[in-house]
Amino acid sequence: MMFQKPKSGLTRRAALALTAAPFATPFLGLATPARADAIVLKFSHVVSPDAPKGKASLLFKQLAEKYTDGKVTVEVYPNSSLYKDKEELEALQLGSVHLLAPSISKFGPICRS
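The structure corresponding to this sequence follows.
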């Protein structure tokens, strides 16, 4: 039995290409260079920028951006401007914030579970 050309004008080669496309698509990304998008980290804390923890967060921002050649951007949110003290750990678990500087007392309920 010979292969007959479909009436739609689709050739055998085109039909094979269409069936193989969904399987080849995931591998196409492997050959492309890495994306140049910057990584943005959200750093939330509850103290002022002048407090020792606030100064440390700003130093972290400066060093992270310097040593990654600007590929990482750190956004520091002091004074509970992004999340309140009781909301921070939940925000971290949900991925809404990436870095925290909580008080050690905030880990008590987690360690007792």
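The radius of gyration is 26 Å.
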